[in-house]
Amino acid sequence: MIGRLNHVAIVVPDLAKATAVYAGALGAKVSAPMALPQHGVMVVFVELPNTKIELLEPLGEGSPVRAFLDRNPSGGMHHVCYEVDDIIAARDRLKAEGARVLGDGEPRIGAHDKPVLFLHPKDFCGTLVELEQA
Ligand code: CO
After folding, report:
1. What average pLDDT does the segment 52-61 reach?
2. Who has the most CB within 10 Å: 4, 11, 95, 106?
3. Which of the residues 54, 57, 83, 130 is marked catalytic?
């Protein structure tokens, strides 16, 4: 059911420093930082030939990645995002398999203006999984 790896998200305490690591030592192509207030993050997209890395820094008081950074002060991998063709069909299949869909179970519009859902890490090998309708 899942298709391409759309991105891996890494939460960082200092977006400028993280961007410098990717652009400098790792020699990757990086975007300018973008504020996504509706998602509570500042993001830099790292473009790789086969996928993207998203460097996320908390933005605002209610940022959904703030607690993660509190638990992982030097940052860390936050989630992986897999593409699916039909997010409603994917959700219904996963619920039938007993997986927990986070929030109210309805897709939201994600950082790429496409519908996304998040799946409980305890059901997926300890990793928060985002599904994005490609
Ligand atoms: Co994501």
Report:
1. 96
2. 11
3. 130
Q: For the chain, list the domains and their CATH numbers.
A: 2-133 (3.10.180.10)
Tokens for 105?
A: 């179970």
Distance from the CA of 92 to the center of ligand 1, in angstroms? 20
**CA–CA separation, 103 vs 72, rounded Å?**
23
CB 87 within 8 A of CB 15: no
Q: pLDDT per residue over 1-50, tens digit each?
A: 999 999 999 999 999 999 999 999 999 999 999 999 989 999 999 999 99
pTM of the model: 0.94
The CB density around residue 46, as the number of other CB atoms within 10 Å, is 22
Q: Give distance in angstroms: CA of 9 to centre of ligand 1.
A: 6
Pairing mode, strands 41-47 and 52-58: antiparallel
